[in-house]
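May I ask you to review the protein record following this short note?
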Amino acid sequence: QVHLVESGGGLVQPGGSLRLSCTASGIFFRIFDMGWYRQAPGKQRELVAAMTSGDSINYVDSVKGRFTISRDNAKNTVYLQMNSLNPDDTAVYYCNASPIYSSLDYWGQGTQVTVSS
């Protein structure tokens, strides 16, 4: 059974930083493409950052230069380092895992990030 567990969310002031973690179980992690999505109230879920099994990386334009995605295959974990946070980054952040051999998608339960003074 596949489980993705996110952690690291919370309340932070504008300009602050957070690091999200997503630890996977039940999958052969190194052959999965991993991504971080977010959904703000009243908005559609959007892809924030993605890192393929081959370490190719993509970011949505709004976070380029501020967020960094990384993965540790030995720990079955993907990270999202978020710097220079602003109120527009407030959302529930979800971890996504997709195997390279199919169109399956697995999701974590989400972690709330709130940027407010």
Observations:
- The longest strand covers residues 91-99.
- The chain has a mean pLDDT of 96.
